Amino acid sequence: AKPQLGSWDMAKFANNVDFGQGSLGTNVVWMYNDLAKKGPYKEVESEDVTARHSDPAFDEYEARPTELLQTRLRVSNTGWNTPFVDPYIPPRNLYIYWGASSATGTVASQLIGGAGRASSGQRVRQILNFGTFMGNHYADDVSGHGHFLHKLDGQEFAGLALKCCSTLLVPPMENDLPIYGEHDVVARRIRNFVSNGNTLIMTGGDYSSLIFLNKYFHLELKKTVLDEGPFERLAERDLPADAKGKWGGVAHVLPQSGLSVTSVRKTSLPPGASLLYATPFSTPLFQLTYCQAEIGREACRLARAAGRSCLRDAQEGECVRLRARGRRCSCGHILYDGFDFIDHHASTIGRSAWDASLLAAVAMPNAARPGP
Questions:
Q1: Which residue blocks in the chain are alpha helix, DSSP H?
Q2: Is the pTM for the entire model greater than 0.90?
Q3: Other CB atoms closer than 10 Å to residue 263's CB: what's the count?
C-alpha cells in the first residue's frame, strides 16, 4: 500500500529512499494522482485527458496513468506537444578532445574575472548536448552518441587512427596545445587519423589551432590580423560536394564579434582548399583534404630503420593515380571553424549564430576510405 500523501514516509517513497520500488518518475505520477483529487485540485476527477480537452490533437490520444504527469507538463499556451528539452543528439561516431584545461576559461576570460564565463570547451559541449553528467564530471553519453577523448598519446586514439570513419572535434586549445616532434609516434598518429578517411574539426579563438595544423600537416596557414568580417557563405554550387545540403540551417552571413573569430588569409591556403564562408581576402570556415601515400619498399625499409614513417604527404589527385597502379594512398578531411565559442556567453547556455556552424560541421560525412 502507498503511504499517505502528506506523510514523511511518502516523501521518502517519492525519492525511493526505503521502498526501492518504481522509479522517481512513476512515484511522482502516483503522488499527482492522489493530489489531483484533493483540495483545489478536486475538480480533476478523471485521468483521461481526452475528456477535458477540446484540442483535436487529443482525439485519438489515450493517456496511460504513468504518462499523465508528463502529458500535463507538456500542455502549454504554445502547443501541447512543444518539447521542453533540445532534441539534438550528437552523431555516434563523434569524439571531442577533452584536454586537461577544456573545462576552464581562457586567459582572456580569466583576466576579466573568468568565474562567470564559460570555457570554450564547455560551450562546445553544451551546443552539441554532449556527455552525461556524473556528479563532478562529464562522461561518454550513456546512449552511445558522443565520446570524450582525453589524450592523443593514449591507446584509444591509437586505435582510432588505424581505421575510418570517425570525427574528432577539437575545441579551442586554450592551454592544451600538444607538442610532439615531426617523427614522434603521436605526430604520425595524428596524420594517420586524418588520412585513414576520418575528419578532424579544429576551432578558432586564438592562434593555437593554426599552429597545430601547420606543425602536424606541413601547412603554412597565416592568421588574418583584425579581420572585421562579416563572412558570407559561398553559393551552394561552390560548396564542397559533401557540404551541400548540410549548411542550410546556418545563417548566410556570420559576424565578427570583437576578436572572437580567427580567420585565415586565402593566399596561405594549400591547393584544393574548399571555402565555406569568406570575405574577399580571408576565410573563417574552410575544408582541406589531406592524403598520405606509401613510399617504395626500399625507402620504407630505410625509413623504419631510422624510426620514421613509411608514409608521405600526397595530393588528392595523385592518390587516384597511385591507387590505379596498386599503391596504397588514402585521404581524409580537416575542417576549420574559426569561432572561439565563448564570445559574450556567460556560464549558462547562450545562443550565437555561430553555434549552428558547429552542428553543420559534425554532420558532414567522412571521406570513408580506409588507407595504409
A1: 8-14, 24-35, 68-74, 107-111, 120-127, 155-160, 185-195, 208-217, 297-305, 316-324, 355-363
A2: no
A3: 26
CB 309 within 8 A of CB 303: yes
Burial tier of 213 (Cβ tally within 10 Å: 0-12, 13-18, 19+): buried
How many CA atoms lie less than 13 Å away from 309 in the CB half-sphere? 19
pLDDT digits (tens, 9 = 90+) for 283-308: 999 999 999 999 888 888 898 888 88
Q: What are all long-range contacts of 23-28, with beta carbons under 8 Å and residues at least 24 apart?
A: 25/66, 25/69, 25/70, 26/66, 28/69
- Main-chain dihedrals φ then ψ at residue 43, nearest 5 degrees: -65, -15
Least reliable range by pLDDT among 78-82, 214-218, 306-310: 78-82
| CB contact at 8 A, 134 and 150 | no
Instruction: Please tell me the total number of residues recorded for the chain in this structure.
Output: 372
Tally of CA atoms within 13 A in the half-sphere of 50 that contains its CB? 10
Question: How open is the CA angle 50-55-56, to the nearest 5 degrees?
Answer: 90
d(CA 229, CA 206): 16
Cα–Cα distances in angstroms (integers) from residue 260 to residues 109, 166, 257, 313, 344, in the given order? 12, 28, 5, 32, 9
- Rounded Cα–Cα distance for residues 250 and 238 (Å): 16
The conformational region for residue 349 under phi > 0 = left, psi -120 to 50 = alpha, else beta, is beta
Number of helical (H) and strand (E) elements in the chain, helices listed first: 11, 14
Report helix, strand or coil for 349: coil
Find, among 183, 130, 208, 150, the residue nearest to 304 by Cα: 183
| Cβ 146 vs Cβ 128: under 8 Å | yes
* CB of 213 closer than 8 Å to CB of 202: yes
Instruction: For residues 305 and 90, give the distance between their C-alpha atoms in angstroms, rounded to a whole number.
Output: 43
Which of 215, 212, 197, 214 minimizes the C-alpha distance to 290?
Answer: 197
